[in-house]
Specification:
The protein is an alpha/beta fold. The chain folds into two domains: 47 residues, no CATH class; 291 residues, Aldolase class I (TIM Barrel, Alpha-Beta Barrel), CATH 3.20.20. 33% of the residues lie in helices and 18% in strands. The strands form two sheets. A ten-stranded mixed beta sheet has the order 1-2-3-4-7-8-9-10-11-12. The chain has a two-stranded antiparallel sheet with strand order 5-6. Bound molecules: S-adenosyl-L-homocysteine (SAH). S-adenosyl-L-homocysteine binds next to β8 and β10.
């Protein structure tokens, strides 16, 4: 719970709920908790509770996210939710239904301070951290929507707006709740970072073996300093050491995200440098290639798909694992890097791709 803000429904821990239900029989806590986290219900719909208690909980513990818009793409298989938070800032959550899984992409901050030029969230700048309740509620509300289509959410990726490692306390408290109370396996939860080393180190010492994804995008410091400015503070070699430690302690796959930018990071030399970094984390580093999605503030286009596949083939030839990530929700600005929640993004001056060429 953050100071100064009224607690919302999914802010409270089970113990805090226990205090709230102090004057009720003890089994009520189990009923409320199962209602909120297993049935994903509003208190009004938890029918085994007395009416007066339902009304009290509804009144005392409002939801945190006000739905502003719901956009649907991919024939209903991708749904983007635009929420307004207390204080007026806006965030987005994306639900993606696949034949074998249902994934929720959650935001950890309103905006982002990391300033990656090719990312719409980075272009918009930072507004504030999300509370634990605001993160958990994104999962609950998206899971309710999935339930309407007869689907159960199986995977969570912290790949929405914001830098999870910059808000790790709340991200971790939310992860714990998503795992322990909503019931998702830690192996199906992925935390993605721009490469904040102290965050990776802290995550390594936390109990659950969640997946770690690192937004690498460049395999040498010169190019990465340009694309991902935080690299100046946490350069590639140190980042790789932190990933290797994570891998060793958790025995979970570490993956690298690589947004393919035409003429910038998609050349043969990039594949070679990247493969070399992957070897350092062998046998487990895995590269996710994402053709760059268009954003208002970044002029360079994504690598054409044919060359994305050639890059993947080259990586595999060099002994690195790589897949091309299927793109979802481009037409509703729900794809990687496009989440801006309607905020104005800064237009960077036109930078030629050659600026990054060695
Ligand atoms: N801040 C975290 C979480 C965001 S995850 C992180 O950086 O990992 C969103 C992913 O989409 C990141 O890998 C990000 O680098 C990538 N991305 C950002 N803008 C993109 C774009 N325009 N096209 C494709 N991927 C993009």
């Amino acid at each position: 719970m953050s100071a100064g803000r009224t607690a919302t429904r999914y802010d409270l821990t089970r113990d805090e709920f226990g205090v709230l239900l102090d004057d009720e029989p003890r089994y009520r806590l189990d009923q409320v908790w199962a209602g909120l986290y297993e049935q994903l219900a509003d208190p009004a719909d938890i029918t085994n509770l007395p009416k007066a208690l339902r009304a009290r909980l509804d009144g005392e513990l409002p939801l945190a996210l006000d739905l502003v818009a719901e956009s649907v793409s991919d024939k209903g298989d991708t749904v983007k939710f635009l929420w307004e938070l207390d204080g007026g800032s806006r965030i987005e959550t994306v639900l993606m239904l696949y034949p074998d899984r249902a994934t929720v992409c959650v935001s950890s901050q309103a905006g982002c301070a990391m300033a990656c030029g090719f990312c719409a969230t980075g272009q918009a700048g930072f507004t504030r951290h999300l509370t634990t309740g605001e993160i958990v509620e994104q999962v609950v509300r998206a899971a309710r929507s999935a339930k309407k289509s007869g689907r159960r959410v199986s995977n969570i990726v912290f790949m929405g707006m914001g830098e999870p490692m910059a808000n790790l306390d709340c991200v971790w408290a939310a992860t714990d709740r998503i795992h322990g109370d909503i019931g998702l396996s830690a192996r199906h939860i992925t935390i993605s970072t721009v490469g904040i080393i102290p965050g990776i180190q802290a995550l390594k010492d936390l109990p659950l073996p969640v997946n770690l994804a690192v937004s690498l995008h460049a395999a040498n410091d010169k190019l990465r300093n340009e694309l991902v400015p935080i690299n100046k503070r946490y350069p590639i070699n140190d980042l790789l050491d932190a990933c290797a430690e994570y891998l060793e302690v958790k025995n979970r796959r570490v993956s690298f995200e690589w947004a393919m930018i035409d003429g910038v990071n998609d050349r043969g030399s990039d594949a070679e440098e990247l493969a070399e970094l992957c070897w350092k984390l062998r046998p487990s580093a895995h590269v996710n290639l994402i053709p760059l999605n268009s954003t208002p503030g970044y002029p360079t286009r994504g690598t054409p798909l044919k060359r994305v596949h050639e890059f993947r083939d080259r990586l595999e030839e060099l002994g690195a694992n790589a897949t091309v990530r299927r793109n979802r929700g481009n037409d509703i600005d729900a794809a990687c890097g496009q989440l801006a929640a309607g905020q104005t993004v800064k237009l960077t001056t036109k930078r030629a791709a050659t600026e990054w060429s060695p």
